Each structure stands twice: as C-alpha cells, then as structure tokens.
Amino acid sequence: MDKAATETTGIAGATMAGGKIQKKRHQQAAPPQQQRWGGGVPFEKSKGQHILKNPMLVDTIVHKSGIKPTDVVLEIGPGTGNLTKKLLEVAKSVVAVELDPRMVLELNRRFQGTPHSNSLKVIQGDVLKCELPYFDICVANIPYQISSPLTFKLLAHRPAFRCAVIMFQREFAMRLVANPGDNLYCRLSVNTQLLARISHLLKVGRNNFRPPPKVDSSVVRIEPRRPLPPVSFKEWDGMVRLCFNRKNKTLGSIFKQKSVISLLEKNYRTLQALQLNNKSQLEEDKVSLEDVAVLADMVEDLSMGNSDEKDDQEMEVEDMDMVGEDGNDASFKAIVLGILKQGDFAEKRAAKLTQVDFLYLLSLFNKAGIHFS
Q: Residue ranges of the Ribosomal RNA adenine methylase transferase N-terminal domain (predicted)?
C-alpha cells in the first residue's frame, strides 16, 4: 500500500501531496498576545483590550445605566465602538476616552458621516492622567489593571456624576460590594462604600469578549454619596489601614502593639506641639479632592490577596506586646485601649465592622486628640 509522499519545497507554503504540487499562501500567525478579529484592528491582551461581542449584553448594560436623553455620557475604553453606538442612540452626547491611537482612528472612521458624528467626542489619552470633562453617567468596559485607581479618580471627580456602570474583573467587583463578615470584605470595600453606594448588576462570562480574558467579569453600579461624610479621608484611610492589617485579629491585639502605639503617640505629641486650635481642626476635616484621591493607594487590593498573610504585607506590625516600655508609653497605651473599651471595640475584628462602626471609632480617637495622619 503506497503512502502519499509529502515534502516541503523551497517555495513558502508549497507542499507535494500525492504527486501534485499544492501552493498555499504563507499566512503569518498573529503574536500570542495580539489577535485580529473580523479583519479589523488587532486587539492586544497585554493592554487589556477585550471587546464585548454579545449585542444583547451591550443592550442590557445601556438599559441598566438609566441614561436620559439629556445626559452626557463618559465612556472609557470604547474600543471599536460597539457600546459607543448604543450609547449615542440614547444619550445627548458621548465623550469617549481611548488610549490606543489605532482604536481612536477606527472609532472616528466608524461614525464619520453618520447622524451621531456631532454627538461624539473622542479624547486620545490615558484616562488616569487626563482631565475628565463634565459628565452625568460613566459607562465603561475597562482594562482590569486600572480598576482601583480609576474607581477613586471617578469618585474624586467634581461635579459629582449621577452614576457609573462599569465592567470589572469579577473578584474586584465582589470586593467592592462585599459586606462585613464576607470573605472578600477588605479596605477596598470600606473605602469605596464610604464614598458611594455600590450594587452588583450582572455577572459576565469570559466568552462574551474577544479575545476572551482568563477570568469572568461583573458589571457594577456606583452612585456617589451626596453629601460625603464629614471626615478627613487621609485620616480615615490611616485608621482603616491599621485595622485591616490583620482583619481577623481583634482590634485590642492590633492597637496594643508597640509599633502602633509609637505611631499614634508620635502623631499625638506632634499635634500637641503645634497647638492646633478649633479653626485648624475644622480645616483638617474639610473634604478635598486630594483627600479622596489618597484612598486610591490600594496596593493589597490590586494584588487580589485574601489571606491574612497578604494583608500583613501592607504594613509590618510587631505581634509581641511592648517590651521595656517607659511610663509615657504605658500611659498612652492605657489611653488607646481605654478608647477601644469605651466603644466596646477591644474584642471586635475589622472584618465584621460596618461603616458606622468605623466612623464611631474614628470619632472616639479624635475626641481624645489621637489622629491617624
């Protein structure tokens, strides 16, 4: 039984099969991180480019955004414009921010000469670095690596928008909406929920994108609180950072550690030396955009760590009780632990505390002249 001989010739892509020469055009494969879809612009996974391909999902996102005919919509990462088209059909105008110049060209080409061309403004640039214009609603399918800084940049934007409907990596989204006692409840949960009401809208499987990402996604609705709580957010984050250093340890065991006592006493002595009066104290408590922006420094949340070991990387804290403390240290330690007992916090854990609990704890410390920034 004869086999069909097959051998490669000197001509690229030409092979011999069964004695006949068959010429095939040489097709160069796209790089592993770059795939071309539908003959258009190649998408780059390394830049977080995953385009929604499910039209029903696009319609659902637009519907849940609650866009009015008078609304200006901010779209972040429009890609080739599948979501942009639907937004233009219901909004007064759309401002699209896109980093990739190839996508900007594709977007302008797609809507040039259409009835919506005058309603679309495309800004080429990094959304984290550019100044955002006025908008009523934000709708975005974003690169997941900018989730945390973008969320807090939006929450710091003034004037405040009505709501944002954003596609996040599922685990990040579930951290945003986590409640006290949930496994994913963390600093990210506490800080974002201080500034906004956040709700989970729908889960999105990875096969709804092209190219498909490695993880599933979720769409989340974010509504900024009005007015914002009258707290110093630098100080708020300083306290929350300490509490979540080991979120499953009691606050009593965290606050009696030598490094924590030393930090708080240093702040206390410094403020006493400055002889802060009521006017300067009020100035400290004023809400500022820079103050809100400090909450975007979420190193442990970007790493998506769950365990106490990963929480420990946030700040090095001694587990041992204070050794060789002098009289001043001992007396200040007694003040700190007395505050925890006064509010019945000594045996409580950060993982179980609500927003109201954290606000109350911060107020107790501040009344005693103890600050976290």
A: 57-226
